[in-house]
Give the backbone structure.
Amino acid sequence: EMQLVESGGGLVQPGGSLRLSCAASGFTFDKLHNIGWFRQAPGKEREGVSCISMYDLSTYYESSVKGRFTVSTDNTKKTVYLQMNSLKPEDTAVYYCATDSEMSCSDIDEPGWWDYWGQGTQVTVSS
């Protein structure tokens, strides 16, 4: 069974940091091309945040998180991390990772096109 599992969310004060993890299992190499990070705040649409290519480790960041968030993977390429620094209240959302063999990181602005999703992890930035 192909599965993505996020972890690492929590409550943090503004200016603080969190590291999210996305563990992939059950995927063959041809099914795990790019891992995207998305978030959905209450009352808002899901939006793409960041993405990493498993082919060349190139990365993508949405403008509001550029310079604050860093996406990376480990040597096995089965876990992807999202290091989030200088967190702001507007970063509060449920964060999801997703993958799709047909999607590239340039498709991160189309969350509805991605097939495989984790269950999400809540990030709350509040004093």
